[in-house]
Design goal:
globular, single chain, Helix Hairpins
Length: 286
């Protein structure tokens, strides 16, 4: 005779009247239960779930771009599930739980908004953006020092970001350190650089060196997609290489400035930074 199943049903354990977030936590706990859970959910790890986390973030952005608020609500739910999933696995490992995650981000938001939660004064959104980035830079520097490393303006830019996004972040960081052309005349300088890089691509092509062509195309990627197509060069591969080159050289510029006693690159001036940049290029070619 079959024994009755006395286990609580999903409906009994997870009533619709429960708080929505508590209900979601209970659902995830059930899914991860080694005995009564879902075999697929139980066998997942941080590493196996990470690709889904990235995918859900992109789907949120896609819903926003389409202006589909119904889809946005659904995709935000999928993204929230990822947070709950990772937090549940961490709780099982005895590291942290979802409350710790919420507490940490809450503390961070309070610390980064002293004009809201303390007595600081911020004039406008632009000033807040500057204050935000300044504080984040200080936090990155503190982390680097705590780890016994030399702080860089390029610290904390995730390698896993899409190449175009990471390039933008790297360039913005460098610009905040003074490594940028003045606003007036910048377009003319960019056009000049375009011509220089295009000439270097042609030289590499005539020399028959595919790696050299790929390297130079990375420098010109934003304006030479059509050229890359004719040269049969993969744009994503080229841009990843250029990101690494920019970061390596900029760190070398920082090191050179540090050796000269410059602790804040904005004090060096663009001419001095450009000279250091060119010297780094010469060193690499040697």
């Amino acid at each position: 005779m079959q024994q009755p199943d006395n286990r609580p049903s999903a409906a009994d354990a997870l009533p619709d009247s429960a708080h929505p977030f508590e209900r979601l936590l209970a659902i995830m706990a059930r899914l991860r239960d080694p005995v009564r859970g879902c075999p697929w959910d139980v066998e997942q790890t941080f590493a196996t779930i990470a690709p889904y986390t990235i995918e859900e973030a992109y789907e949120v952005a896609d819903a926003i771009q389409q202006g589909n608020l119904a889809s946005l609500r659904e995709e935000l739910g999928d993204l929230l599930l990822q947070v709950v999933f990772h937090s549940r696995m961490a709780e099982e490992a005895g590291v942290f739980n979802v409350e710790d995650v919420a507490r940490t981000i809450g503390d961070k938001m309070i610390a980064r908004h002293p004009h809201v939660f303390a007595d600081a004064s911020i004039a406008d959104a632009a000033a807040q953006t500057l204050a935000w980035e300044t504080q984040k830079a200080a936090e990155r520097k503190a982390k680097a020092l705590a780890a016994g490393l030399s702080a860089s303006a390029l610290d904390g830019v995730p390698i896993g970001l899409p190449a175009l996004t990471r390039a933008l972040k790297l360039q913005r960081r460098a610009a905040r350190s003074g490594f940028d052309w003045p606003t007036e005349g910048a377009i003319a300088q960019i056009k000049k650089k375009f011509d220089e890089e295009l000439a270097e691509i042609e030289t590499a092509r005539l020399g028959g060196s595919r790696p050299a062509v790929e390297d130079e195309c990375g420098d010109l990627l934003f304006v030479c997609v059509n050229l890359l197509r004719h040269l049969d060069i993969d744009p994503e591969t080229a841009l990843r290489s250029t990101n690494a080159k920019f970061e390596r050289r900029f760190r070398a510029v920082e090191a050179k400035m540090a050796d000269e006693g410059v602790t804040d690159l904005t004090d060096a001036g663009l001419d001095r930074l450009e000279a250091a940049w060119q010297a780094v290029k010469v060193d690499e070619r040697r």
